[in-house]
Write a structure and sequence with these properties.
mainly alpha; Rna Polymerase Sigma Factor, Chain: A; 8 helices; elongated
């Protein structure tokens, strides 16, 4: 049965390549629900997923003479949808960032933005200075936890201590940083 379905799909694909719009509609009807479910798991944006699926089938139709029959039509469509959605999400993110920057630049004067940047730079310098004041072993545990996102078990293995000691190191690092950073009024 599954083998027959595969042959039917292959024959639909070949008919679509020959210019049969009904074959394209058949492929769309066969795979829409599966592609929609997959797309929703990837990004959760219903409109973006529907647009992505539609874009895939438009592209397939427009490029039908250049396409070969894929080994797995389902696999081809899933991979194409994934690429389509990732590209769309990346473009949306860039547009959102550009709009946010525009809104930010309109909301604040250049002097305000410069003050914010200087404040952030001062905070980074204060944090770097504070990090140099804590013992290296504690700083290492903090780095492994915060920058490498390792578990206490993994930190313990790397540092050759028990997981509880690794946890204590990280807690102590945060406590010492808080105490040191209290010296800076604007932090």
């Amino acid at each position: 049965m599954a083998n027959q379905l595969g042959k039917d799909i292959q024959s639909l694909w070949q008919s679509m390549q020959d210019g049969d719009a009904e074959a394209l509609a058949g492929l769309f009807k066969t795979y829409f629900a599966m592609l929609f479910d997959y797309g929703m798991k990837l990004c959760g944006n219903e409109d973006l997923v529907k647009d992505g699926i539609q874009e895939i089938f438009v592209t397939i139709w427009n490029r039908r003479s250049q396409l070969t029959v894929p080994r797995s039509v389902q696999g081809y469509l899933l991979a194409t949808l994934r690429r389509q959605l990732l590209t769309a999400l990346h473009q949306n993110r860039r547009q959102t960032e550009a709009i946010s920057q525009l809104e930010l630049s309109e909301a604040f004067s250049p002097e305000d933005l410069m003050i914010v940047r200087e404040t952030e730079a001062a905070r980074r310098r204060a944090l770097q200075a504070a990090l140099t004041e804590i013992p290296a072993r504690i700083r290492e545990a903090l780095y492994l936890k915060t920058y490498q996102n390792l578990s206490y078990q993994e930190i313990a293995s790397i540092m050759q201590v028990t997981p509880q000691v690794a946890r204590n190191y990280v807690c102590e690092a945060f406590q010492r940083l808080r105490q040191i950073l209290k010296k800076f009024q604007h932090f």
